[in-house]
Amino acid sequence: MSLLFLGLRDRGKWGKVGILPGDIALIANSFVKNRPQKNRGINIDVFVSRTNSFHELAISKDLVKVGEKFWIAETRTSVDQNAILGNSVMHFLGYSEDFLPGYSRLQAFVLELEPRGFCIVSSFRRAHHDKLARNLLMKLYPGATRAFLTSRDMYRIISSANKLRKYDLRVRTDFARESGEDEETALEYHGKPVQELPTIDGLFRAKKNLRRSLTMYKLIAAQSKIPFEITFTGEGHISLYEGGFEEITSDYVTPVIDVSFERIKRFSKRSMSETIDKKPRPIEIDFESDQFTTAGDMKSLIAHIQKYSHCNYSIVHSGNPHLFMYLMDSKEHSTFSLRTLGSDKLIISPQIKTSPESMARFADHLLSLPKLSDGEIAPED
Length: 381
Known about the structure:
Blueprint: E1 10-14, E2 17-22, H1 24-33, E3 42-49, H2 54-60, E4 70-78, E5 89-95, E6 108-114, E7 117-122, H3 126-140, E8 144-146, H4 151-165, E9 169-178, E10 184-188, H5 200-209, E11 212-221, E12 229-233, E13 237-242, H6 245-266, E14 283-286, H7 295-306, E15 311-319, E16 322-329, E17 335-340, E18 345-350, H8 356-367, E19 376-377
Parallel strand pairs: 2-4
Antiparallel strand pairs: 1-2, 3-7, 3-8, 3-13, 4-5, 5-6, 6-7, 9-10, 9-11, 11-12, 12-13, 14-18, 14-19, 15-16, 16-17, 17-18
Helix pairs in contact: 4-6
């Protein structure tokens, strides 16, 4: 693989980082093909940028400084006309021996796909990849946030890719949360022939009827001349075992960025400090059926909110049944309120200073409760 990095060097510098031209699609596909262990998937985590591109965030956070836990060691700009990766930029990472021992410099990179999103890719073991992704997010915060998908988002993305590729995707393993439960349970179908594995449509209908919120799929193609197998989670993580990098980028990574970015956009310019009339613009979440009719429903909702690790809260009223509470995001001190409206609506109201990321994170947590997973953010009036 090192041969791919030979070539004419661009003498331009981005800080102390050498910028080189390269065929991004060729490099990425070779990265997948030449990974150290074939039974270990390529790990991909998707992130969304709020205002700045990744390289602008990296400069502001001094990610080019050698000697930290990790840094940008080399940047590749595209010189090809590839329809999917032709406008992308690849940043290979260096990392200290203390932080990630035993890995070479060419085993992880950040792929900057467009100004509003990027992904971190590695051939590390999953635990080490998660460590790098987590620390990168902490370094870039609050300029970047992790992607998050509801069960419905996941279904739509997978279904769209399945129709495009005609793979007849089947589910080898799925993880889900039962209604009212926080622990994930797995259903595995490894003993069955591929043709007997559940289809995406069939499994999604079953989970909806059983009130199970899907959090992860392990997918395999039943009909394809080219092997295809991935794991896809609601937190924007993809493990690629079989398949092409361009295909994964176009069918999964880019849609995840689009869905997550639009969610952030819908939560933007709503606090009192951002609106022209200095009045908050609340977010309304609608449900297909009654969800808040008993004291038990309120208790279940409050218990779920208590498991959200990024906020402090104060309950003003709970009963009748009706819920009204104030919350503060402990990450960035954004404040907002939550209340029920009737039996099938939740209202999130920003206060004087509330970031769209804090409201979006909290709304995503609310919808991760299985019985609320079908909630939809109401369109603007």
